[in-house]
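Cross-check.
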Amino acid sequence: MKTSDHPSLPYNGKSGHVAASKTSTARAVFEDSSGVTSKRQLAILDALDAAAYGKTWKELSADLNVHHGSISGALSVLHKCGRVFALKQTRDNSQIYHHNNRRFEFNDDERLDFPVRTAHAQASDALQALLLAVDQLLECQTMQTVAAVRHANEMYKAVKHGI
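Predicted model, tokenized:
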């Protein structure tokens, strides 16, 4: 097995699932351990490698006969891991994905090299930064740590309120 054949598992050795859902977690664990994840990712990579004009999730779903959620999740993981990229241009209101070996065919301003961060993920990052600043403040209160807490709090409030 080539290194490129190994599945991308960026979430603590897993392909990802909805944390609060037992069925989503069970599905991910089963698919990751049984080879389903690897086969799905390789099928997507092969399809994109052969697609001169890229593919949308809808096109991949139809070509591979795989449900939207499974295609979308696999594309997100492959995008996060740098094995595929999306274009800023869309087709039929969907992002166009390409295999990473076609990166050189597009300018930096045409590509989305990393998936878009959701508002929830941004808020989570801001909250983590705020909690870290509070921990540092509690450990050693200085003008700098007070300023860091104020700044982190403002960033969190801005993300939470969409400012």
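The chain has a mean pLDDT of 84. The CA atoms of residues 55 and 96 lie 5 Å apart. Passed to J.P. for a second look.
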